[in-house]
Design goal:
Elements lengths: L15 H4 L6 H11 L5 E2 L5 H8 L6 H6 L9 E2 L1 E2 L2 E2 L2 E2 L2 E2 L7 H5 L2 E5 L5 E5 L16 H33 L1
Antiparallel strand pairs: 1-2, 3-4, 5-6, 7-8
Length: about 170
């Protein structure tokens, strides 16, 4: 299931694939490996103290708090960076767009769970030149799709917590 509007590539320095890192869950990693043929793209090295602090101090409604809850011994599974950018970014385009991680699928949006239990779609980042951000209001179908993927991200986080050790052993073999 691909998310709504197709990325046309950009050269701005704001997106995670350019100026951050993309978290990857176990199921996403397996899907990407089936597409690429190996796990060469994975990084489970220690996060810097600065990044750990940013995740820890992030707004509790936003992604950083979820990611911080998944950190183990200062490590978090993510896509490697190559020349400071996402391993899969080439000429401003994603080489694995069809199988990109869930977080990339809903970007530039995120969701928050309201006290009522409802899920609200919010803009995660704003960038006036982004081909996805720079559009009119999302449709009801797009919003529904984002919420479904967000729920999948939450389920994947629980799976990640329970199975990360086994997964790391598996990919070493």
């Amino acid at each position: 299931m691909l998310i709504m509007r197709k990325c046309l590539g950009c050269s701005d320095e704001v997106h995670c694939c350019i100026n951050g890192f993309a978290f990857v869950g176990i199921n996403d990693a397996k899907k990407i490996r089936r597409f690429t043929g190996d796990y060469e793209f994975l990084d489970f090295s220690k996060l810097s103290k600065r990044v750990l602090k940013l995740l820890k101090d992030d707004d509790p409604c936003l992604e950083g708090t979820l990611r911080f809850s998944l950190v183990k011994n200062d490590n978090l599974l993510r896509i490697k960076k190559k020349n400071g950018k996402c391993f899969f970014l080439k000429n401003g385009k994603c080489k694995i767009y069809e199988v990109r991680p869930k977080i990339c699928r809903i970007y530039p949006y995120w969701c928050i769970k309201l006290i009522s239990g409802r899920i609200k779609v919010i803009e995660h980042d704003s960038n006036s030149s982004c081909t996805i951000c720079n559009v009119n209001k999302i449709t009801k179908d797009e919003e529904k799709n984002i919420k479904k993927i967000f729920n999948d991200i939450l389920k994947e986080a629980e799976y990640y917590k329970k199975n990360m050790g086994n997964f790391l052993e598996y990919i070493k073999e």
